[in-house]
Amino acid sequence: MDAKARAEELRRILEENSYKYYVLDAPDMSDYEYDMLMRELEEIEAAHPELVTRESPTQRVGGKAAESFAAVTHEVPLESLQDVFSFEELESFGQRVSASIPHPRYDVEPKIDGLSVALRYEDGVFVQGATRGDGVVGEDVTENLRTIRSIPLRLENAPEHLVVRGEVYMSKKVFRALNEERERDEKPLFANPRNAAAGSLRQLDPAVAAERQLDIIVFNVQAVTGVEFREHSESIEYLKSLRFRTVPHFEFDTIEGCQRKITEIGENRDEFDFDIDGAVIKVNDLAARAALGSTSKAPRWAVAFKYPPEKKETRVRDIIIQVGRTGVLTPKAVLDPVRLAGTTVTNATLHNEDFIAQRDIRIGDTVLVQKAGEIIPEILSVDLSKRPPEAVPYKFPTVCPECGAEVTRDEGGAAIRCHGAECPAQRLRHIVHFASRSGMDIEGLGSAVAQLFIDSGLIKSAGDIYSLDYGRMAELPGFGAKSAQNLKDAIERSKSKDLADVIAALGIPQVGQSAAKQLARRFGTMDALEAADLQELTAVEDIGLVTAQSIRDWFEEPQSKHLLGLLRDAGVNMTHLEDTSDQRFAGMTFVLTGALTKYTRDEASAIIERLGGRSASSVSKKTTYVLAGENAGSKLTKAQSLGIKIISEDDFGAMIS
């Protein structure tokens, strides 16, 4: 079979299995088999670039990062719906419809809490996707939508022109995993799946959107040529035949039937893998819809029933403290079990010390709870009339309940945090950070491998990395003699890293890569840094009193001393090795923008810093040079307006030669 025929066959097989996996949830091929076929297709396309097609499964994450999103005028407006909040209001809607349409039939669907988009296909090929925007004009997010596996890039037996509307969402499972990862990386958490989906779909870099594992459910045909439907339900079945993942829908002859289904959907909302914030009731007959028309704001043939947040009383049995992966101590109320929004709730987050104090929540109190955003149980208020006489104000712990290290409150924040270098609750985060590129750069020791080592009892802290039992490692799932040897080599190489890398890897609060480099240059050895007092630390550029105190507190903690002892015993370098004789960029600030072709941004930034300069993320009057690559955007424009010198990669090369 020639390359062209094999490539076409592989695309067909891969798309078929993507449909079964992402839409039907019924794969008949293992992940390994799928990956091997994908690799074969990638190799064929790499050898024969002329065979690459826009709709190939290899091109799902192929677009360039954009500076901004282009505006798209919708062919058919993406209207919003009128909300109703009671069955009385729903009955009024039914009466208005019945006054114009004899014996109407209705379609009831769960209202997915996501981001509405329009997908346009020409001759069966997905060519454009846009957000709803204001309903008339949205944003072009085609490249990000291409990363969603349940969106078919090519349709079989498709019409010449097709526009469909769907709701992009993040599944509850993916949302939980994403927030766990963001917590580990000390990034702000997303409030709910809708917030996460919206932020992900509007990422300027499609690769970031792809990592978020978004999904879509299609619920309407906006425009189509050569195909006619009498009813909405027919159009949904048609979309299903084109292999879209479609919305669950139910037909009823009466508003009373709709009410029963709305109640059922509300009671079982936890069974969906997506969040819902209500149910949509639509007239099924498309001719009747046309006759009813729309107001200036919404169609007259549909409404959205919004579920009221359910609130119930229960009792606080206990308040316990959980230590997160970032060391933050989070209080949690243990509750008498209560049924809320389809699930049994037994605990509620109390956020932080201030939250407890402001509401004066005590063990034994009777409290009113609801699910915030239908997801996270929260306490709304305390019924003081039912407070037992023995209830006393809650006192927050002064030491970590996991490791016994002292806890401190974040400067200017509400979070109380444990900084124990070997705290069991933070074990995974510490190890992953230590081995990351911004630390010791131990290739192959990522989050999954670190978790495997922890679960297997091979390591308890970052210091244990250098005393790994490689024989036991080779016996773990996914490991063999070769992979164990590769990791061993990477670990050995890390022992010779510069002092700046070691300092950054330790995870000292307030100390990132830039501060670590300044400290390494100033003190030269770990011993000298450990012995430095506040006056010596604050004399270092960019090290203020808060950071200096954080450094002193970290070195005085017994767990930190133990970790440093393990590293020293393992032979990890503790001195500054970097040659600082060439400081030609001293006092200069560079900003990088656009796509660089001769260097990666990290490489260019490292060169600038090695030569004494500083790499910044935004343009200001203090910027010395803007290094501009291809498709430079707003940063270049701002630099021009401020009269800042703009240099090319060739100019930069000449400056560093």
How would you describe this structure to a colleague?
The structure is a single chain. By secondary structure, the protein is of the alpha+beta class. Among the domains are: 57 residues, Helix Hairpins; 219 residues, 2-Layer Sandwich (D-amino Acid Aminotransferase, Chain A, domain 1), CATH 3.30.470; 110 residues, 5' to 3' exonuclease, C-terminal subdomain (DNA polymerase, domain 1, Orthogonal Bundle), CATH 1.10.150.20; 68 residues, Rossmann fold (3-Layer(aba) Sandwich), CATH 3.40.50.10190. 36% of the residues lie in helices and 20% in strands. It is built from 24 helices and 22 strands. Strands 2-11-10-3-9 form a 5-stranded mixed beta sheet. A 5-stranded antiparallel beta sheet has the order 14-13-12-15-16, with no helix packed on it. It has a 4-stranded antiparallel beta sheet with strand order 5-4-7-8. Helix 22 links the parallel strand 19 and strand 20. Helix 12 packs across helix 13 and helix 16 packs across helix 17. The chain starts with a helix and ends with a helix. The model has no long low-confidence stretch (mean pLDDT 88).
